[in-house]
Amino acid sequence: MGHRAFAGLILLAACSALASGEPARVEPRVLIVCDERVQMDALAKFLRDSGKLEVEIVDQETFPATTDDFRAIIDYVHKPFTDRVEKALIDYAENGGRLISLHHSISSSKRLNKFWLGFCGTTLPTGPREQGGWFVVGNTTASLVNLRPGHYVTSHNVKYPKRISYVSSESLREPQVLPALELPRTEVFLGQQFSGGQPREILFGLACVDPKTSQTIMIDRGGWIQRKGRGRHLYFQLGHATGDFQNAAYCQILLNALTWEPPPE
């Protein structure tokens, strides 16, 4: 459902309630589906307190039969999606919804889903990391690097505490000094390969040091936007630890992803 249409529904509901003398009832604006509740409780608190958004949290079993009343859906599911939820999320985005996927929404468990990785335009190769295989760098401090400083999602009300020298993994450009924020004691995925020639707008890079090898890693996989049918799919890789969702700057980025109005096409 589009933002203006949703606002119209809110106004209509409020007017009807006033006419009947009953308090206005507004459907939740954001739906979160998850299988790890503590992290999403932290994010929901920020969205409610700072974004003044209505947020409902469900698991896959209680995922609603219809999602027409929601402004956006956030998925934070570690295990494979059920067939019903996988289909519902894809249909929601392709029919005009805004779907925001976090962290392990694109990780090894989703290899067991029939359609999801194809929808994401991403593959997760097996095999050694040295040959491009999917791999987890755990217990690291990750820097989320703003590759699009002028974009609303990356910049609106976001305070980056530092700037770092970053080398893009997708281009041959010289190192750039860019705004970044740090999330400690988290994890980073390597080997998320783009596939299918699907266009996307890359918003963030990631930089970290592998604590096992001391290797410095820089990859343009921190977050991106894709057009899907009449809707949009946004992915943000960080989010392993509860502390990730207690970082005000990172939560503001996710709030921006919910409130961003794409330019007319």
Helices and strands, with pairings:
Layout: H1 3-20, E1 30-34, H2 37-51, E2 55-58, E3 72-76, H3 83-94, E4 98-102, H4 116-120, E5 122-123, E6 135-146, H5 152-155, E7 162-166, E8 176-190, E9 193-194, E10 201-209, E11 216-228, E12 231-236, H6 248-259
Parallel strand pairs: 1-2, 1-3, 3-4, 4-12
Antiparallel strand pairs: 5-9, 6-8, 6-10, 7-8, 10-11, 11-12
Helix pairs in contact: 2-6
Describe this structure in words.
There is one protein chain. The chain is α/β, with parallel strands linked by helices and 265 residues long. The protein has a single domain, classed as Rossmann fold, CATH 3.40.50.880. Helix content is 25%, strand content 31%. The strands form two sheets. A ten-stranded mixed sheet has the order 2-1-3-4-12-11-10-6-8-7, with helices on both faces. Helix 3 (83-94) links the parallel strand 3 (72-76) and strand 4. It is globular. It starts with a helix and ends in a 6-residue tail after the last helix. The model is unreliable at 1-28 (pLDDT under 50).
In short:
By secondary structure, this protein is α/β, with parallel strands linked by helices. It is 25% helix and 31% strand. The chain has one domain: Class I glutamine amidotransferase (GATase) domain (Rossmann fold, 3-Layer(aba) Sandwich).
Number of helices: 6
Q: Main sheet?
A: 10 strands, mixed
Shape: globular
* N-to-C series of helices and strands: HEHEEHEHEEHEEEEEEH
**Alpha-beta classification:** alpha/beta
CATH superfamily assignment?
Class I glutamine amidotransferase (GATase) domain
Give the mean pLDDT. 91
Q: Biggest sheet: strands side by side, in what order?
A: 2-1-3-4-12-11-10-6-8-7
Q: What fraction, in percent, of the residue positions are helical?
A: 10-25%
Strand residues, percent: 25-35%
Number of structurally distinct domains: 1
CATH architecture: 3-Layer(aba) Sandwich
**Number of E strands:** 12
Q: How far from one another are the termini?
A: 17 Å
Residue runs with pLDDT of under 50 for 5 or more positions: 1-28
CATH class: Alpha Beta
CATH names the topology as Rossmann fold
Rg, Å, rounded: 19 Å
